[in-house]
Amino acid sequence: MITNTELEYKGNLYPSKIVSYTHDVDSVYFYTDNSVILKLTVLRDSLIRFRYTTKGYFSNDFSYAIDESHSHGYNHLKVTEEEDYYQVTTNKVICKIQKADLRSFIYDLKGNVLLEDELGFHWEECYEFGGNIVKMSKTSREGECFYGLGDKATQMNLKGKRVENFATDQYAYQKDQDPLYKVVPFYIGLHNKQAYGIFFDNTFRTFFDFCQERRNVTSFWSDGGEMNYYFFYGPSMNDVVTSYTDLTGKPELPPLWALGYHQCKWSYYPESNVKEVAAKFRELQIPCDAIYLDIDYMEGFRCFTWNKEYFPDPKRMVSELSADGFKTIVIIDPGIKIDKEYWVYKEALANDYFCKRADGPYMKGKVWPGECNFPDYTNPEVREWWAGLFKELISDIGVKGVWNDMNEPAVMEVPNKTFPNDVRHNYDGNPCSHRKAHNIYGTQMARATYHGVKRFAYPKRPFIITRSAYSGAQRYTSSWTGDNVATWEHLWIANIQVQRMSISGMGFTGSDIGGFAEQPTGELYARWIQLGVFHPFCRTHSSGDHGNQEPWAFDEEVIDITRKFVNLRYQLLPYLYTMFWQYIEEGTPMLKPLVYFDQEDIQTHYRNDEFIFGNQILVCPILEPNALGRRMYIPRGEWYNYWTNCLVKGGKEMWVDTKFDEIPLFVKAGAIIPKYPVQQYVGELEFDELTLDVYYKEGKEKSVVYEDAQDGYDYKKGRFSFVTFQMTGKEKELNIQVHKEGKFDTNYSKYKINFIGLPFEVKTIEIDNVEITFDANELKENQYLIVPKDFNVLHIVG
Ligand code: GLC
């Protein structure tokens, strides 16, 4: 690691003056005297790629992160030459490249500085490995803030932090510990209320320094590979993140059940134990959709085998669980036990699919099964083979999802916890060492798993979860935050990690609710589930060596709190599904940190705890024991306290009272929140009404609801329902305009409309300009109205 001030560091080399340039369609090449080339590519008016080489030519251009189907195309691109610089102008930005030293400066069209090179691109020869340590430094301005970077367990705003990206099995990590399991070399800068983004697409170990080493400098570097980064212009954080997510890809919709509650432990076995746990959920009426089998279901931890003593007939068990609404999810790790009698090992060996050391022998390492070899998932042929291995699990046995773990890759009993650097990888035909492939290994495993599960689950949708991931992994898989601990500090960490993952393109994420290591108190578990139900992925998991972590491991009060919050999640499923739809369609993060929600309000820039769930629900967890309320920041606008329906004006920090069975929850005034009835699992009930909680507001607000068949791919053929509700509230009037898109007709025929905060007594109601009769007393008493769903305008007058 470089610790001395880079400026003083004598080993650095810099580009010399530009001697020529060429312009080729969307790319401009600048050549320097000392063989440096900068290739500047305009992908979109607001998205520019900077790629550098010091060799005088570029190597094959290959990235696992970039989604082939990302949108590109610009409206305007002009290159001009001035005395001291070249200027590249698009419809959104101006980029100046200085002739003397190749430094770049980016401005908006009004001439405001967006991002300036400090030293810019420079490098150092890497004596240990050969090649270059590639470096970039940018000038940072007063008040600039930084966000993103995936699963970092540190405050939201990264200003003053130095972080490292190297996928690591980090059992019981602590606050500020780094590196962790995932690698997302993407950050958002915010200055003068304008946002931009940087994605440093380099899979080697990378580092970012956000004004830690030097107060006014941000830098990023890597001990190998290319200086290759993308610049995203905002000006809103939403522009930056949606554009990053478009570039690195969006997932398909998960089956709706995957948004239900999941229960996991290391491990549920034998079969009778799995059944007991499942039955208890139904008995206690706590909704649950998925149950997990951790490594002990296997025969000696051999992937794709079953321990027949514990699970004599997996197919029968899985189908019995399924009859009760439980989907079975199994773990699959990358380590393949070295065992000449084991069919998976034999196949891989026969086909030469394992990773090798530089001098030829297979890479060997200890994981759960003992000595293992490891498939090279960066080889397309290996991925295809791996995908095929899921046939029995998915098609025959009926498993519905696969959990990929230990794929950093983790190796036990070695100091570096992973493969040696010299291990060779195919890297899709770009052979390289483990230094380059390490950070992408987990993603390629999850990718192969995804293709297998998808193939055999068809026409249903697959569900995959991974521990390690690199940018772009969201196309294939959901993720969790790894081996956390049952402490209050970890509840704080989980809240930040999931928000951060959300604005780093990987929103389908959650933490091990209650903590993986150690035993939570009932209070901690309750506070954790109260937050966890607002995370896109919602699963309790624990290491199991300290006791139980099912809701009934705690007292009645905690059981009731768990039920209350899991029920709420199931009621909010259409709302959650809608935000997922916006994520896969637009790349919009499902959780929005306050700064993301309102970047213009500088009060939000250093907030950590509060976030917006979807677009209209403000959530703030309780992160301390014995707290019956807390101070929190309410963003600008008007908000209804979900529990009391009292209206508060935001833009201020305030104390919010809660009980033990509540956390601060607020709904944006004007919101229309869709709700399903509580079901014990997705699809349990048929119902004829969609509940709409209508939060009155004087003024306008738009709400949307996405629905489809909840599984399968018909939605891709337009069989979905996307309903927009436009509310307009006046002093004595409320108008709801409905607009429907899509070819899917929902099963229910009515809306049950709950009015919240209506400031007048209803005198008349018109549906599509026809006055309807209604029981005024009844409405006054209960504040709800049931109407057939097929209307265009509901008009209420007081
Ligand atoms: C790892 C995982 C954990 C799992 C355990 C056993 O520690 O992170 O979730 O339960 O391995 O498979």
From TrEMBL:
Residues 38-209 form the Glycoside hydrolase family 31 N-terminal domain. One of its GO terms (molecular function) is alpha-1,4-glucosidase activity. It is an enzyme of class 3 (hydrolase). The keyword Metal-binding does not apply. It comes from the Bacteria. PANTHER family: ALPHA-GLUCOSIDASE, HETEROGLYCAN GLUCOSIDASE 1. This is Glycosyl hydrolase. It comes from Flavobacterium seoulense.
